[in-house]
Amino acid sequence: MTRAFDRSARTLLAATFLVIAGCQPAEDATPSPGWKTASPFAALDLPAPTATRTASGRPGSGYWQQRVDYTLEARVSTETHLLQGTGRIVYHNQSPDALPFLWLKLDANLCDPLSVTAVLDVPPLLFGEEVFDFGCRGASGMRIERVRSRGMLVPFDVYGTVARVNLEAPVPAGGVVELEVAWQWVLPEYGYGRMDREGTLYQVAQWYPRLAVYDDVRGWNIDPFLGAGEFYQEYGNFRVALTVPAAYVVAATGTLDNATSVLTGTQLARLSSARASDTAVRIITKDEALAAREAATFGTKTWRFSADGVRDFAFAMAPDLRWDASTWDGTLIQTFYRPEATLWEEANRMSWVTIKHFSERLARYPWPHATTVEGPNGGMEYPMLTFVPSGTTREDLYWVLTHEFGHMWYPMLVNSNERLHPWMDEGFNTFIDITSVEEYFAGEAYADTIDVQPLHLYPLHAFPGREQAMALPPDEQLDLYWAAYFKPALMMHLLRTEVVGTERFDRAFHEYTVAWSFKHPTPADFFRFMEDATGLRLDWFWRGWIYGTARLDQAVEGVEHDAESGETRVLLRSRGALLMPAELLLEFADGSSETVRLPVEMWKLGPEFTYRRHGGQAPTRVTLDPRGVYPDDDRANDVWPR
Q1: In the chain, N or C terminus with fewer CB closer than 10 Å?
Q2: What is the pLDDT of residues 392-438, one digit of tens each?
Q3: If 0-12 CB within 10 Å is exposed, 13-18 middle and 19+ buried, where does residue 571 land?
Q4: What is the pTM of this model?
Q5: For residues 192 and 110, is the Cβ–Cβ distance under 8 A?
């Protein structure tokens, strides 16, 4: 999920700084004399490796996760906005544990007047320069009408955004249980920033009861949905039938199974052409969409979709959508947008380049189509389907579009727990978006400056004493824009370019993505995997960037030159608690210069390090971080002479 990229963020909030015990370094400007008694290089206190999650950060021979298959039917009334649904849920207990009850997630109950969010009247969150409202503006919650298993009613208890289903007998390890569920929900006009409806356009998500994740780390994951934290889901197969007014066109997570029943002959022929074209084919033209808007139609149509190996299902519908399609390497690229959204005439090309870019660098896109729908939502992602705003410029449109499609990799493919660790999906995704922008806008100013944007946001958001550790869950973040999106992007960029090296990092990150595809990695898995794949111990890095708000202040304390031996000694000091490698530029009187890169191990013996250069002339000027890539607190002490 995202908002348009903010290039001029100004506002940020004061917050009590929260410390994570055991991981937070001292925040003093000068490291304490007890450097070696509380070494910043000490190993993090991670969970012990198991047969499920190995010491190398890979899934072990005993790795397991649950599977949930859904067969859903829903009818949507555009007069009352009521969605009535029935479904069969097949839960495969692939854990070693017998489960006496199941938990359903009812995230739509965030809109219930008795929800925690409504009762607390949770204030909107400042998100960059925007106000992000997690409210539902008077909407109601989802009502479960009944739950059955084997033809018998099953008792259940609703607790806000979760419901406990009390089974007659436990589901044994390796067992399967089927539930039949009926429910209804009035679709809200503003769905807590995750879905919307505007006029005749509906963007619909969290519309059915979903099984909560039961994993080897926390058991049942039933953290309440408060708005900021997103979704942690089990994988499975979906068969979905959506009955809507006959004039409506539907885009959804799944592949359309009954195209001949719901599309015209002309649309079918154009779609067939699009499957062989790498440029956009107009399936529904602007004139056709405008004509459909005015046409009087009656009755309903049922659109049938199927999706395998996905963790969720969303859809969008409207009577007047333009529809463009093309194909990249067998993947159908689709864009749906209203006639007024003329900027979207380029969106299909943007989508095509995005899917190709991420597939070639991370892991191949695994599903049959990638679809995006224009609308009022600020940006939200679901498997194979994204909601993206109209955009005011090409740059803004591409940023949000590529960001939401980037979520197809994190977390739709690499399925981390967004409710706890947003930096592992929003942060990773913001990081990879930068190279996507650089490719699409190559040769333009936007591409030339995009990689420094996270660094430029640092002084606007990383206020000493106010900034919070990015390891905190999203519901506890007062500046989610920074902690979940752009600080992790800056962290990953510096890890790649300044700590590991681009080639070594890219290979390791690709291997991580492949190894954890369709699985549930934790932060410890990521840490161990990257260390194993790069051959570097990175505890110091994770500790400083993720588990604390330590600040960087590298300084040149002085320069000495021994004319007799020709040795130059450059005294460096780490005045802040955040450690990083160093780069030195030495300039000489004859106009020559020399660049020296010093690894982070320079700080192993404490906050002072002397770099010795043997032979040659004395430098006339020494500069730390000459390229300006680090968020260094005091640039004045980076240069000698002062």
Answers
A1: C
A2: 999 999 999 999 999 999 999 999 999 999 999 999 999 999 999 99
A3: middle
A4: 0.93
A5: yes
